[in-house]
Amino acid sequence: MRDSEQGRTPADELSDWVQDPVGEPVGRSSRPRTRLEDWLAEPAPARSTTLEDWLQGPVEEYAEQEAEDAWSTGESVSGATAAGRYGRPGPADEAPGTDGSAPAQPARSDGRRQRPAFRAELHGLRAVALGLVAVYHVWLGRVSGGVDVFLFLSAFFLTGTFVRRLESGRPLRIPHYWLHTFKRLLPPAAVTILLVLAGTAVLLPPSQWVPVMEQAVASAIYLQNLLLAVLQVDYQNQDAGAASPLQHFWSLSVQGQAFVVWPLLFLLVRRRARAGRSVRLPLIAIVSVIGAASLVWSILSTQSQQQIAYFDTAARMWEFAAGSLLALTLPLLDRISGAQRPEDAQRPRFATARALLGWAGIASLLAVGVLVDVSSLFPGWIALWPLAAAGAVVVAGHSGRRWGADALLSTRPAAFVGDISYALYLVHWPLLVMWLHHSGQERAGLLDGLAVLTASVLLAWALTRLVDAPIRRSAWLEARPWRSLTAIALSVALVAGTAGAWSRSLTREVEPDPAATASPAMPTDEVPSETPPEVLPRGWELNAQWPALPEDCSGPWEPATEFRHVPCDQLLPADAEPAGVVVVLGSSHARQYVPALLPWAEEHDLQIVNLHMDGCDFAPGSVRGEYCDGYDEYALEYLDAVQPDVVLTTSTRTSPEGPEETMPEGMGNAVEILTARGIDVISVRDNPRWEENAYSCAEAVISEGGTPEEADAACGADAAEKLAPESPAAGLVAGEGGGTLTSLDFSPLICPDGRCSPILGDSYVYLDDDHLTKRFVQQVITPAMTEALEGPDGPGSIREAG
């Protein structure tokens, strides 16, 4: 007998697997709303009479009809049936039909077939993925693949949503989808971010305040991944206590960006759908092309710049494409394999194979990162591993075996974690970071890790019940687009306003440029035994400690072409007619001496141009990696065009691990090339580097009432442990051509009396693990730099011009 004659819909349709709406949602009245209280009222939950019902949360009398992404199913499975059962037929459901046929499906009071919101095992799969993310974050410090599963499932549900609309002739309503999605996601995220801002002010040191403010706003507008990529944050850093409490928002940003772009793909096949033609094959072709291009880029980018690739949306889109491809092909796979739903009368074909496939998927997902540390390989081809594992669970579906993976994933505990999965993802990382910073640990132990997870679950449950669920279920917010838009705008405004107000309150306490006007309150060649009234710069001022010139390159000093990661700024405006030009080349360690050049440059009416490239020494002729490749040639072309009088660069490179100070290969060649062009060279020895953030280390001591001497004992080192006995560049000599070489070594000032301390006088020496603060450079390095450049061994061209 055909399915329609039995009163049930076919089980092999995609709409049956991903929540196609069937009439009115259970428990919702169809009568028009005419009173304010009718608009404000929410559907009443069924009574919770058992402990498991209380733990599960409210059992809804209606089901969320469309799972549009991996976070959109809070409380939907637990409220799957009007009778309050958990998506499984009871004894009454199994009674045979009146004609002796297979059992009929349970009917609602209006005669329509009752059905669960969607397959419960997929809700349980969310719980597994989220559990892996949390456990790996707390104890292992490795990549679990759980985030990749969420990207995969988001695409699976999103694609199902829009394909159903196309195939049923309904409008796509993409703007409504955007409003509906971000109306659900942003309010819980905003509450979390506001709590993080409060926790940061109370628990984290001032040096982290400004970065957290910036990341708060970036997270609220789904740009956190781009900010972290620009900052070159190392996601694999083993010290979670030193990480940002908002770092985990990178994956939500990737998802948010995909939610904006991906629905637009369905516009490409809308005319085919209106003409009654199939849309699946064209969509498969489109998604396959996008997925293949993204995968190739992901593999190449991961090999060359993994820290950036990890946060790159383009390197992650192939995971979204994989979820879409499964959604598009699932009906065919279901027909071939004889899939059935849990509430259908017939058992699925190949039940044992399905159960084994489901367990293979779960086991494979659990093994990601346990058998092999794959952290450095993501998001390249290795991400196929967790996606294939999740796909196996989806394809296996309902096995009909009591011992199947789907049976375990359909239990109430799994659904409880699935219901709070979004909130749990939001809160677990900030709680972990706050605890680790408070305890001074890099990783949590067994007991405190369990405490963090327990607190995360409780807070996630509260956030779901108090914020997520009411907004998700609000018919009033859904009734008018402006209401959803207001919820979105208000969420962003609260975060941006709070962060902005906090930032302004800090800047009001500081003069416009304290580093430029401050003078040492104490000798800068001493480590004070008593703490000065204030050690500067303060933590929230660190961003201002990066040296910058006031003008973007323009006029005759503007490069003919741009080069990746190379900014160009200048001291004087474009219409200036300086007496000479100084160009700064090399890494950020050369750039940090720009403030020390200013008095000398202003005295001689010189233009300064900064053309540095972070992480790349100026060493033409040396073997370069992919990142630095081409910088030397670019810099030389610029010098030929500008014809500067002086070039400043660093001539050695120190190591954070010890005194393995070296002169980069090609440095001698650089001096020879420049002086042969008649350019005077200022060669500066590199400063010591540290294995940890020297500022944060010293700041922690001072903030706990310690003295600079105690900070030195905890964070400093002897110069012999950080520098070679003699500068490796001591043998550099100028080449023939007229240019001079001025070699400068500020080590005695940075490490007076053979000791490299994080605080000298009332100044922090370092702003991170290897860069000097602008304040220290201005106070200590500038006088020595000016004296050396004005002396008889200073740049010959400027001396002669003077």
SSE order and pairing:
Blueprint: H1 3-6, H2 14-17, H3 36-40, H4 51-56, H5 120-140, H6 146-167, H7 174-203, H8 209-220, H9 224-230, H10 249-261, H11 270-274, H12 280-309, H13 317-337, H14 351-367, H15 384-396, H16 405-409, H17 412-419, H18 421-439, H19 446-473, H20 475-479, H21 481-507, H22 514-517, E1 551-552, E2 569-570, E3 580-584, H23 588-591, H24 594-603, E4 606-610, H25 631-642, E5 646-650, E6 653-655, E7 658-662, H26 667-676, E8 680-684, H27 694-703, H28 708-715, E9 717-718, E10 741-744, H29 747-750, E11 755-756, E12 759-760, E13 763-764, H30 774-790, H31 796-801
Parallel strand pairs: 3-4, 3-5, 5-8, 8-10
Antiparallel strand pairs: 1-2, 2-4, 6-7, 9-11, 12-13
Helix pairs in contact: 5-6, 5-17, 5-18, 5-19, 6-13, 7-8, 7-18, 7-19, 7-21, 8-9, 8-21, 9-10, 12-13, 13-15, 14-15, 18-19, 24-30, 27-28
State the oligomer.
single chain
**Mass-distribution shape:** elongated
How can the largest sheet be summarized?
7 strands, mixed
N- to C-terminal separation?
103 Å
Helical content stands at 40-55%
Q: Supply the number of helical segments.
A: 31
Number of domains: 2
Strand order of the largest sheet: 1-2-4-3-5-8-10
- Structural category is mainly alpha
Rg on CA atoms, Å: 32 Å
| Mean of pLDDT | 83
Strand content bin: 5-15%
Number of strands: 13
How would you characterize this protein structure?
This protein has 802 residues and is mainly α. The chain folds into two domains: 123-484, no CATH class; 514-801, no CATH class. It is 48% helix and 5% strand. It has 31 helices and 13 strands. 49% of the residues are buried.
